[in-house]
Amino acid sequence: MSSDDRINCFLDQVCLHLYWPPYRTRVRRELADHILSRAEYLHQDRGMDWDKAVDLALQSLGEPNELGRSLRHARFPLLYVLCVLFTGLVWAAIAACLAYLLMFLIQ
Fold this sequence. Notes:
By secondary structure, the chain is mainly alpha-helical. It contains five helices and no strands. The termini are far apart.
């Protein structure tokens, strides 16, 4: 497997856990840039073989599924989602009460 294939496979595994497409695209671009920058540093400055440098850059990021889950939780923490849902329900209840009161005022 070529180094590009290994990078794409790693990025695919990370991005499986990210549901929002713009966030997934941004994370994929930033991780690819980080991996390539690190591999280039290891290749040019440390004199490593390119494939070994890519492997080491990928290993430094850790396990891709764990990284993907961490990035998803960092972007959409459960408490934040619950607060947004609760706020939406409160506003819906207020709107329903106002609509109910307006029905009686019109009659």
